[in-house]
Amino acid sequence: MLREKYKDEIEQILSRYSVKRSALIPLLYVAQRDQGYVTEAAMKEIAQILTLTPPQVYETITFYTMLNLKPVGKFHIQVCKSLMCALVGSDSLIGWIKTKLGIAPGESTADGNFTLSAVECLAACGTAPMMQINDDYYERLTEEKVDRILADLRSTGTSQLKSGPFMWPEAPKAQV
At what angle do helices 7-15 and 24-35 cross, to 10 degrees? Predict the structure, then answer.
């Protein structure tokens, strides 16, 4: 029961909003942090806390890609499939990852390390194709970059990649 386990945090969240419904997303984050995804029981409990119906809670969860209805792997790979990313190869990127990991969008690897999701816009249209793994963005992706990222994740077991964070290439110096 979320109310018992996170009583103080729930009360603190509710105190921030004059309209109870406004606390929906923060409470969903509490539920997801607890189990790694939002369970049906948590949806019902949050609906009761906020005087909403469970379908109202469910429709919010299904709208936002950062909320999960089932367990996800240690590394949640979300590949943008919006128009800009699609125009520069996100479908090929999804296919490459599918081949490398042996899973389709919506599936997780047997070891529970990776989950692949195809999602709508992640707001990096100028650097497409791109993906988000947990909280980190990876942009201007190629098959080679994806291979390196997956290898680093497998070898380190964390989102701290051996190759370091993404760095924009330096612009050429202007000739005077």
Answer: 160
| DSSP helix/strand/coil, 166 | coil
Query: What is the distance between the alpha carbons of residues 58 and 24, in angstroms, rounded to a whole number?
Result: 11
> Which helix (DSSP H) or strand (DSSP E) does residue 61 occupy?
helix 54-63
Task: Give the three-class secondary structure for 96.
Answer: helix
18-71 pLDDT tens trace: 999 999 999 999 999 888 899 999 999 999 999 999 999 999 999 887 889 999
Q: Give CA–CA dist 39/94, Å, rounded.
A: 27
Helix (H, G, I), strand (E, B) or coil at 116: strand
Q: How many separate helices (H) and strands (E) can be counted in the chain?
A: 8, 5
E runs forming strands in the chain: 75-80, 107-108, 114-119, 131-133, 136-138
155-163 contacts: CB < 8 A, separation 24 or more? Answer: 157/74, 159/75, 159/133, 159/134, 159/135
List of domains in the chain? 2-63 (1.10.10.1590), 75-156 (3.40.30.10)
